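Sample A.
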Amino acid sequence: MKKLDLYIIKKFLGTFFFSIVLILSIAIVFDLTEKMDDFFEGQVPLREIIWDYYVPFIPYYMNMFSSLFIFISVIFFTSKLAGNSEIIAMQAAGVSYHRLMVPYAISATVLFFVAFALGGWIIPRTSSRMLNFTDKYVEHFTIENARNMQLEVQPGVILYTEAFHRHSNIGYRCSLEQFEGKSLMTRTTADRICYDSLNYWHLENYTRRKFEGMREELERGERLDIELPITPREIFITAEQAAQMTTPELREYMERQRERGSGNVKAFEVEYHKRFASALGAFIMTLLGVTMSSRKVRGGMGKNLGLGIVLTAGYILFSTVSTTFSVNNVMSPFMAAWLPNFVFLAISIPLYIRASK
């Protein structure tokens, strides 16, 4: 790399991290003001407020608004370079427009890896602490009991419980049905189903029926040990908890659900694809930002900044709307996650070709 590359990289990353620190500081102040009464009423220790809430708060919101601040940072310092005629001087010295993009691409690559690590590993680990803290001191939202729960634990095997308690790992008035195609092969009912250890359960006061054509075998007993590829934790997993899984855990969970024949993994698939799409959005936002702000225009950077904020807000809104479409089966999870990138890339390429000329 040359001095010019280091100069642009320093400007890019410096502006990005400065703007992120500034906005997160303001967000923490407003959030602390809003939740101060809850902290005092719950007599929350200062260490828990800092470590379990505000330390996870920073990477979570940093990753959420990274696209916005990449775009604004690029527009801000590139408009300043253009306004000071520095880009004209670079091109007069023989630096082509394509060569000028190299330090921008290097900076975007750094931010890509930062966003990918945050979304795939760091935030899932830290956000669980933040949610547990919120559930304990601010707003209780954890589900302790599941009622009328029915799920396919593996292909052709349906488990139903009238009630299941999280802390005791016990379900009441349950049934376990096994099908081959559309034919019911066995049906087992029990007063209670209890979790023993990994994938091992036992039924209490059970009645088991086996069907072979017109024949039926009846079996009763006090206890029946069975193996089911599910744990109580998976029973209480909701779509909102997809963000608390690391990328390998999320992929493993989706594969396990598909093996069971469950199709209700849309939200998890969207979350999985969004982690890649949002990280790669760093390149698209950088490309679009440079092409919009590399020319010296009358009126300074105000127009570019205003347009940049509008476009980035549209990008975030587009991502949210497309996610809703996927959950409602209007489009596939892949398209829901990647469509905003495809649209903004289609906008960026013609602008880049025009700017390079």
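Sample B.
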Amino acid sequence: MRYSMQYLKTANVNLIKDMGMIPYKLYERYGYHSTVVTYKNGEYPYIENEVKGLKIDFVKRRLKNFSIDGALYLKSNAKNIDVLHIFHVTMSSVIYAYTYKYYNPKGKIYLKLDCSHKLVERILKLNRITYDLLNKFLNKIDLISVEQQSIFLNLKELLPNQQHKMINLPNGIDYDYLNSINIKYDYSLKENIILNVARIGAEEKNTKMLLEAFASIDEEIREDWKLILIGPIEEEFKSYIDNFFYENPELEEKVIFKGNIEQRKELYEYYLKAKIFSLTSDFESFGIAFVEAAALGDIIIATDVGIAKEIVIKDNGRLVPPKDKEALKGALEEYIKREDFKELSKFTYELCKDRFDWNKLIDYLYENISSIAK
């Protein structure tokens, strides 16, 4: 099977996310001839080890326009692609779909809707004409996957003519890779760490909420705990950090900014050591960091965004409304004092292993691709 994932913004880091992992795992497990189609966006060292065997085909920047350059690539290559994998409902994806089907009418298109509730809201606001145009585009698609269960159900209801081709497929974690770098869940390695992995200070990540909630926790409760934040720090946020430590000098050794960590093993070691993972975003389409944290037994205490609600399903964490600092403070205090951390951690780890293993997800996707490719 000749399988091409076309997303022209793909960079090296995307090769270990869904853009690279789906074609890679289809190659690894089922022998697909998998190719990533993209502009050349820097270097791609992950291709040598993490996703070895995955091919990359670079699109020429003729007009420096994602839609047109991508369409010109498909004009020349569509007949050599059995399954075209595209993303999102955008002008580019519409043009790719029509171009591909024109030059390869028998080819199949897999559309991955990396979306949030905002797509549902946009569809609800469409007038009759734009709703019909959306359906005409989706009629070109042979398989549609939606990451979150709740959005999947909403879209099936909003798009009844397309529901027969929709599947629920979240993003996953590559346990094969974790084993290869000797990262294995072990509760005895856990420390009193609250971990945050995000673009520090980005508006939608609302890092301030987490910092202020941690600072407001009773000193005796947080005495033995540290807050570690990993990720690139937005330049304009650095003055806020300076002011935060000026107002809370006692936290200089308890709140630690590690900056961006590019070595994957080092990052996973922090997930392995943390007891709590907290992401305080106002908005997330999926939030792969939730899955990475859960895969190593971190208790999720976060805003109710992205895939979090499918991980926190019992008492193994707490979700709070976005921007609700007091609710976050209360949840952190509650769980810091919990005595059943080990049981909650193990439950989270096992749930993630069952639901978010890339191998299991790819097996399911393969079954569905096989059904449309007959």
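B remarks: The CA atoms of residues 224 and 290 lie 24 Å apart. The longest helix spans residues 341-355.
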